[in-house]
Amino acid sequence: MFRIRFWGVRGSIPSPGPGTVHFGGNTSCVEMRCGSEILIFDCGTGARLLGDELSREGPLKAHIFFSHVHWDHIQGFPFFRPGFQPGNEFMLCGSKSAPLNIEETLAGQMNYPNFPVRLSQMGATMHYNDLEAGERVEVNGVTIVPEPLSHPNGSFGYRVEHEGKVAVYATDNELGGESSESFQRLARNADVLIHDAQYTEDEYWGRNGLMAKKGWGHSTWNAAAHAAAAAGVKKLVLYHHDHSHDDDFMRDIEQQCRAVFPNSLAAYEGLVLDL
Prior knowledge:
This protein is α/β, with parallel strands linked by helices. Helices cover about 20% and strands about 30% of the residues. The protein has six helices and 14 strands. A hairpin with a 5-residue loop joins strand 8 (about 140-150) and strand 9 (about 155-160). The protein is globular, with a radius of gyration of 18 Å.
């Protein structure tokens, strides 16, 4: 089994409300089930919903991979219920190049006066693995490889290989005129590419009176579609939607993207993909 489920698909800040009912308003969190292994990618506010579901399964052992530690990728961790349950065990993995390691960052957001409960008070057993770019993680027949992405303060994309299938999680990546060598290694011939597509071309370049977003560390759906085609990707999933894009706006983006890369869709909360 290789199953992907989306629990949070937004970027920057949660965007709940009547305009985001279909695609959802929670920030980044994706679950992958590879056989008996549970892999979690980022812990934005979507991690709260995932945690509520996982808490029903009894003792857990899972890996959590952080793309980076900007708020929208860690802000759900203090509300991740399985983290408070004794008997559960988690390996938390992320970039070794950040100013603070994963443990220090997660502890920092839960220190007073930011939060009333400290990381040390969570009941589950936590292990930490500060990864180098390209360092392979082998987990019971699953291979996970991090590659650097283009984002302020750095970010990791992850290539997940299991039973001959490949899924790539690549959020917070600003694609330039040509894909980088590391991105090509990451995405080459993937069955599914989950990629940042936060902006339209007008938003990115600052056209029609909009403020330019170039250099902010995110891609347009158009750039994601062309990069997916160049890498030989089979299915593209647009991800990390801007908080200002409501359901109608997202449906329009999805339609435009399919004209460029037909086998594509915009991620929404509750989306399940079986490879």
